[in-house]
Design a protein that fits this description.
Layout lengths: L1 H19 L2 H17 L16 H11 L2
Helix pairs in contact: 1-2
Length: about 70
């Protein structure tokens, strides 16, 4: 959600730079876009984060040994 909000602000600043012909507003928009890209995180939980008994490595090992 934060990424969408920051990218909307960045696009708005870039559009205002063309409307008002002030290049510094576009620069602010680009800085906001870079901040949005580098502060975005991956919210997909991994098996290790679910506190399961099996780690992702153990699952891969079991599948590899099963195919032999």
């Amino acid at each position: 959600m934060k990424l969408l909000l920051l990218m909307t602000v960045a696009v708005g600043c870039l559009a205002l730079a063309f409307v008002w012909r002030e290049p510094w507003i576009g620069g602010v928009g680009l800085l906001v876009a870079f901040a949005a890209m580098f502060t975005d995180r991956d919210d997909i939980p991994l098996d290790d984060e679910r506190r399961s008994y099996e780690t992702t490595k153990s699952v891969r090992d079991m599948r590899r040994y099963k195919d032999r």
